[in-house]
Amino acid sequence: MTDTIQTDAVTTTEGTDAAPAEEFLHLDPADIIIGTNVRADLRPDHKEFRKSIKERGVIEAVTVYRNEDGQYVLLRGQRRTVTAAEVGTPTGLIPARVVPQPAEADRIGDQMVENIHRAQMRETEIVAGVEQLALLGVSAAQIAKRTSIDRPIVNAALAVTKADQTRNRLDYGDLTLEEAAIFAEFEHDPEAVERLEYAKRFRRSLTHEAQQPARRGRRARGRRRRGRAAARRGPAGADRRGGRGG
Asked: What b/e readout covers 190-219, taking b as 16+ CB neighbours within 10 angstroms?
């Protein structure tokens, strides 16, 4: 059973119409249902983050809603909730803001905004989120507005959702989203794909070559630092006055 500490519910009224009440509770993170989330990759968090939650708890409240069975389903705060359930908190509970269940398009859009602007989403996750919104009938312009994603990126993601082979290559990391959008347009033209492959390799080769001077410069600076350090130390066995040990 979920252990809760309930505070006063927050209610808002305008005239005679009352807005749905919001509550602020403290919940056992293990009892919170991890609802559908556009973020599929729960990468391990930094050890300091895990240590902070274990020692101090979750500082910023997560957001949940009640489903038809009265269970709390997570909307925002997946990383905090999962980590708290794994490492524990001083009280065993985490703060949670309880809101009315949102419309599906609002849920997807809100989760994409949270993840894009807080922790970098993978391009495959952006494509998946954009696809879900499109399937709900949300236009490309509205997707860009809801998620604060630049329209060209939304257009690229939509193009990739219609090309299975190209999307698989994006999933495997063989293509960037920008490259995938171009490949998607010519997916069923083998000759065009072959030309694009050559152009991709050539472009990446040029990028690699352009990075070489900077890399060589860093290595040279490293060698100079090591040389100066060796010069200060003097010959092996030298004492602090620069003479050789007897």
From this structure: eeeeeebeeebeeeeeeeeeeeeeeeeeee
